[in-house]
Write a structure and sequence with these properties.
By secondary structure, this protein is of the alpha+beta class. The chain contains three helices and four strands. The N and C termini lie far apart (about 130 Å).
C-alpha cells in the first residue's frame, strides 16, 4: 500500500487493511458508463506518479519514431563456432610450422659457428707448430733402428738430427 492511512483518533476501531470488506462493496451502487474489454483496445502499463503502474490505452501514448532496425546479416552455410575452431586450428598449425623453420635456421647458424670455431682452432694450431717459429733450439728428431739376428743377437742404432 503506497498511500498513507487517514488519521484516526486514538480509541477508534481500526479496520484490518489486509482483509477484503465484501459488505461495503455490495452496498455501493455501480455508476458510470460500462466499458467492455474488446472496445477499449490494448492496454500498456506505465510507471505512475506514486511508484505504482497505471493502465494506459496504447492509442493514447505518444508515438516515437524509432529508427528501423538494421537488417540481420545473411547467414552463411557454416556454423560460426565451427569457423572459429577451424581458424584456431589453422593458426596453431601455422605457429608449429613457423617454429619448425625457426629451429632449422637456428641449427644452421649454430652449425656454421661451430665449424668456424673448429677452423680457427686448427689454424691456430698450425700457426703454433710451424717450423722456424721456435727458432730451432732444443728440438731433435731421433731414429731408433733395431736389427734382430739369429740366436737372439740384436743391434740398435740411434741417430739424432
Amino acid at each position: 500500500m503506497n498511500a498513507p492511512l487517514p488519521y484516526r483518533p486514538p480509541g477508534d476501531p481500526v479496520a484490518d487493511p489486509l482483509t477484503l470488506d465484501t459488505h461495503g462493496l455490495a452496498e455501493q451502487p455501480l455508476s458510470g458508463a460500462v466499458e467492455l474489454a474488446a472496445d477499449r483496445g490494448p492496454v500498456v502499463y506505465v510507471p505512475g506518479a506514486h511508484g505504482g503502474f497505471v493502465a494506459v490505452r496504447r492509442e493514447d501514448l505518444p508515438t516515437i519514431h524509432a529508427p528501423a532496425p538494421a537488417p540481420a546479416p545473411a547467414r552463411s552455410g557454416l556454423d560460426p563456432h565451427a569457423q572459429r575452431m577451424a581458424a584456431k586450428g589453422v593458426l596453431s598449425a601455422g605457429a608449429g610450422v613457423g617454429a619448425y623453420f625457426a629451429a632449422g635456421a637456428v641449427a644452421i647458424v649454430v652449425d656454421s659457428l661451430v665449424q668456424a670455431l673448429i677452423a680457427a682452432a686448427v689454424a691456430a694450431g698450425v700457426a703454433l707448430a710451424a717450423p722456424g717459429r721456435r727458432g730451432g733450439g732444443d728440438t731433435y728428431i731421433t731414429h731408433h733402428h733395431v736389427t734382430n739376428r739369429w740366436w737372439g743377437k740384436s743391434s740398435t742404432t740411434i741417430r739424432n738430427r
